[in-house]
Amino acid sequence: MFFGNKINNLAIIVVFYGLWSLWAIISLSGCSGTIPSASTPMSGKVTLLWNEVPGAISYNVYGSTSPGVTKLSGSKISNATNSLLINQLEPGKTYYFVVTVVNEQGESEESKELSYTAVADKIGLIYWNEALSEKIAGDEKSSGDLAKENLQSAKERLADSAFYIFFEQNSNELSPKAIEKLDRIYEILANNSAAKLTLNGYSDSIGAPSYNQMISEIRANSVKSYLSGKGIKPSRMMAFGHGAQKFIASNKSAEGRRLNRRVKIELIIP
Predict the structure, then answer these.
(1) CA-angle at 28, arms to 22 and 33, nearest 5°
(2) Confidence band (pLDDT; 50, 70, 90) for 11?
């Protein structure tokens, strides 16, 4: 009888300590969830966009937190690609930017200055919707003439531009590089509900005119379909095919023809 009581008492003690341990674990778990921990403040971002300037070899961007930014006063980003995403902006602070064009004659004057006030966890947009400025544009050559004179510089300038999607011969398949570019375009559209696109498809000079017209339309609609599949309303995009027109490179070389098989993306912001 005494032995039985000892077993019962031992069982009660084990249950008691088990319940106490469970309470302690739950209490500590609750504390760790309710005590606020220090976290990194959310930062803002802004995408800088500009229309290509014929004759440009590269672009430089200068930024500052004070108005009146110049090449002497601003922080420089060399060989900037279009589009350019700026990270780590302090929410509530206004940033100012200008762009310069680098061509064979050197670096141009600054563009008109545009600004953006950063918002936490949002990608803003600064868009030079015409030529960067009249004083930068200067005496422009046609893009076709430029590419014929200097195909390599045209290739380097356009290859990373989010506004040009290139295709293989007889294909409308989007390459990994094209998808990467279109994902950047998607971010711009997703963060700017008023923005719209015009998609202009072109071909090289190989093939019959009717075929080139058809494939250029198909390529433009491939771009539209990809973006609509990610959630962009089709009504925000217009797709056109132009066939073998407006060449940006000579069709005498394989590389030149590759540059001509393209969809040019034009961003429209009311």
Answers:
(1) 125
(2) low
Tokens representing 198? 């015009």
* Domain boundaries, given as residue ranges, for the chain: 1-37, 44-137, 143-268
CA neighbor of 193 nearest in space, from 96, 132, 123, 120 = 123
pLDDT tens-digit map of 17-48: 555 554 444 443 443 333 233 344 568 888 88
CATH pick for 44-137 out of 2.60.40.10, 1.10.3720.10, 3.20.20.140, 1.10.287.620: 2.60.40.10
Please report the pLDDT score of residue 7 as a whole number. Answer: 43
